[in-house]
Structures are given as C-alpha cells and as structure tokens.
Predict the structure.
Amino acid sequence: MQGSKLYRYFWIGIGLLALSLQIFIIYYVYWHRHFLVPPGNDVVGHYNLIKTVMVAGKVNLSAYPAGFHLIVIGISKLFHRDIWWVLTNLTPILIILPTLAMFFLLRQIFSLKVSVLTSFVLLLSSGYPLYGFIDGNYPDMLAYGFFAVMLFAFLIRYFKTNKKLNLVWSGLFLLLIALTHHFTFFNVLSILLVFGLIQLYQKIFTCKIKLSLKVVLSTGIFLVLLIAGYFLSELLYGGMVSNFIIGFFTNAPFLKNNYLNILPDYNDYPSFAGNLVWCFGLAGFIYLLMTNFSTKTDKKAKQLVIIWLIFFYVMSRLNESSVPGRFARELALPLTVSLAFLWRYVFELNLNRIRLGQIFVFGLIGYLVIINSVIFNGFNEIPNTFTNHIWFWPVDQAKVDYIDSNIAKDAPILYNPAANLFLPVKTTNIRMTPLKLTEEQILVVENYRKHQDDKKIQKNYQNLIKDVQLKYKNISYVLDDVNPPGNTDPSAYPAYANYLNYKKVIESLEEESQNVKTFEDSASIHKIR
C-alpha cells in the first residue's frame, strides 16, 4: 500500500480531518458564545496600532513592526469589514498556521505518515499556540509559529537539494519575520548565527578541508550578513536589540513586568508544550543526542533542532530574557521535530512490518492524542474554552450603543481605565477620557478605602477629590463601569490593577451628578451638573 496513491490519499485525508476538527472546535466556541472580541487584552494594543497606521498612512517600525497589522488592514479592505471583525473572526486561524508550517518542515525529512501523525499531535494536543492566542500574541504567533518554521524548513530543504532558491526563500521569510515581530527576529538570528558557526567549525576542523577562497568568501558573507542583520534590527527597532543585550547581561530585563519576568516552574513545562509533545519530544531529543545519522539532511536537521531547542530552553530559565514563560511554551515546536525523529525510528522497527503491530501503534497514538486534547473533556466543555479571557460581552456592547446613540461624539466622558479595556476603543466617542491618578494619589485612595473613619485620611481623600474635580472640570459625563466576568487578576493582567481605587474616585465624583442610565451589570452613566 505504501507508495501508492491510495496510501498517499489516506494520510492526506487524516491530515485534513485533523485540521477540520481543530477548526470546528475553535469556531464552535465562537458560534456558541457569539464572541464580540477575541480573548485576551493584547488585542486592544494591536487595534490601536492598526488605527495609528491607518491614520498616519505610514509604518513606524521602532514603535512595533507592522507586518501583522498591515495584513489585518489589507483583509479589512479586501472583504469590506471593520478591523474588529477581522481581529475577532480571522485571528483563530493563527492557531493552525504553526501546524501547516510544521508539516511542510517535517516533509523535508520524514515520510508522509510520520509528518501527518506528528503534525496531528501538535495540532490537537499541544498547549502551543493556544496560550499565545489567548494572550493575543498575534504577531509573535505569525512570525515564530509560521514564518520561522518555514525559514527552517527551506534551510533544511537547501541541504537536501543543494538548490540556492531555497536559501532565497529562507531569506524572504527572515525578512517577513523582521517586519512582523522584533523579538522573534532577534531569536531566529541568534539561532542561525550559532548554526552557521557550527557549520564553519565542521568544515574547517572536523572535515579538515583547506581554506580555499570559496570557503573563506562564503563564510565571510554569511557572518557579514548576520552581523548586518543585528545592526539593521538596531536601526529598524530604535535600539531594542542593544537594550535587550545590555539588559540581558546586566540582569535588567528589557521588558520590565513582574508577571512576564517570572520563571516558569519545572512542573509547568508539560502544560505549556502539551503533555504528549513534552514527554515524547524529550525522549526524541535524547534519541537525537545519542544517534549518528548517515544522510546530510538528517545531520543538518539534527543540529538545527538541537540548537533551536537548547536556545529556547535556556532562555526560558533566565529572567533576563524578559518573557521566560513564552520561551517555555514555544519549546513545543522543536520538541515536535524531535518527536518525529523518534517516531520514524519506532515505525522502522520490525514490529511495524506486522499489520497487528501497526494497528497497535496507530491506535496508541490516537488514544494519547485524544486524552491530551480538548475532545477528551467532552463537547459540553468546549464553549468554555476562551470565556475566562473574553472581556467584552453584549452588556458591554449595550453601553457602547447607548453612548453612541445618546451622547454627543465630542462630549467628554470620564471613565475607569481599569474597568473594561475594550469599551473606550469600541465607542465612536472621540473624547473618552481615562481617569489618571499618581502613585501617591492611589495610595491616598487605598488608605481611605481601608480606614474611612480616620479623620486625617478623610481629609486627604477629600482634598484629592477636589484636585480631581479641578483637573477634569470640563467633563460632561462619568462612566462608572465594572470589571467583566472572567480572569481579571491584576498580577496576570496589570491593566486591571487599581480597579477598586479608580472606582472609589469615580463614585465620589457621582455624588453631585445625575444618573442617566444604569445597565444590567450595575454599571452606570452620570451627567455632571
């Protein structure tokens, strides 16, 4: 059967079935819950960047590479849909893109059977890229999950075919990474630099070749291009690379965030990558370290995967990497390739020449995938997949509709910035004004909330309210909003920090105002008299 069209169609059918199943699972959640926004809060930042690009008519790479944002704008214009429709309904596709890229990479090394089964595991049982999607890391998912994997695939394909066109494709995907996500660009460049130096070492010392002009030139060009890539990224991203390197070696993370900088616990790694990918991927990694391959393609792929995996693991153990948790979950991709090497070895054992043995192995893989996937929890649980991270619901849309229909677009509305992150960007009101308090003022409010009977604290708070009233004397309305249901833990999502302190000030401002609308979640709009 192997080698025949029927064999090929069978495995292609299995792959398409797995893709269809994952797409159904994702969009079933959307259809069931009628989501108005995607999960997470990073999408608000991406929306604002998209609006900035649309208004300015140009891209500022030093602020943030705009590759993803330009794609969203293009799709919006192509289908005549607004930006929120694209962000809500099409970003889930990013969840399956890493699997498509991974399948292409695996096919450069392995049989159709191994490639499909391994991709099947990544698609249905890995925690990556589901975590990235929930966090709203869309540019990173596109740059790392798709472009970087395609770059590595064409690099392996070059060693397989010796065709220079594959290097051109690798260069193209490197450029796309640079235009999409700065951090991923830096990481991929670092992996390529180490990989290139190893190739140079092997050619000069291991293979004992003579230093011909061709070798010197090709090596020199490679190193110059990589170094130029670092300098180019420095120019493009406004000092991000140098700041990251300085922070890395001075124990001062480039991204200072108490939540992002936390090192993941060792017990968390299986959940990040997926239990199946983590356990069997590690076994595959050990197999790689202990095995000498005969073909050039296998040797180069082995080196690349080992460097890739070690780089991401080391970065996941360092606070200085800024986002160790993200590196931990992105280990899923090199672990998947390691898993494929292990499975190829298993499938080549004599056991698999027996039909009963084949049935057992395939059945075991299917069983392991199912118990490690969302399907095992039952379809009744699927609609709850993202709900804990959805922070804009129909009741919030009702607030937007009321504001847009009943309040002038240029009427200043003061709101709690830690209540609902989406409402200010969803409304057409152009003068939504966030309440801003200094750290000292927040401390005054917090003391008042805890010790309202203390007269000195009362006086300090009353003085603060007078200062706020003076600062926002031109405000026409006050929106006293509430946190949406779900996970709004400020330790994980700092944007929700100080919600209660802001709310207390908003409530104090309402005392001399007229309540014009109360919503079903107890949020209200007050008109300043």
User: Anything to note?
Assistant: Residues 5-384 form one domain.
